[in-house]
Amino acid sequence: MAERLANRLKDKRGELGLTQAELAERVGVTRKTVNTVENGVFVPSALLALKLARALGEPVEALFWLSAE
Amino acid sequence: MMTERSVAERAEILSRRRARMLPVLAIIYLSQQGTYFIGTVGNAHLVRLGAWVILSIVLLLALVTKGFWFHSMEVRELVDDENTRANRLDAIRLGFSFGMAAAIGCYLIDHFEPLAAGEVAHLVLTLGIGAALIRFAFLERRAHRDG
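^ Those are the sequences you sent over. The predicted structure of the assembly is below.
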């Protein structure tokens, strides 16, 4: 069965009242990269996933998980 | 001195500009192809061919480097972030495949109809760079659009 990387980046970002651009700036990427990760278009590297988790104050496994297609 | 904020904003503007410009560049590049095949001789033809070679080199460098050569390293690093690098690699892989397919096609055709080296180089470059440009344009525009 195919699996994909699901995430709750958008929800968590919304809870903290951050825009995509603000989160992108905290992580050191462009807004486009945050946008594609949130929408599941782009699978981030472990490094970027950890940076996003740190920026949102969550453990990485609370933000990303494997989901069946 | 540029602030952190202005670097991020600048990178966003450049990234969007690139996404808008890539399809235009692809159209200009591919529409120039007639120059080689319908041209005959003369200085005007040589000038057009020279312009095409220069454009090919510039586009190739834009594809394989971070681009935006006249901007600060800080902005260039940001505009070439993880997603952009992934998109670029995807585009280069497709361009390489098209270039190799063109080379194989030319090799086979040459057995029936001899081809000049210039014609082969032209086809390989055109298909390789053209395919990579179109793919990069598609991926970058999609990345900006989603959400």
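The longest helix of chain A spans residues 46-56. Chain A is about 55% helix and 15% strand.

Shout if you want it in another format.
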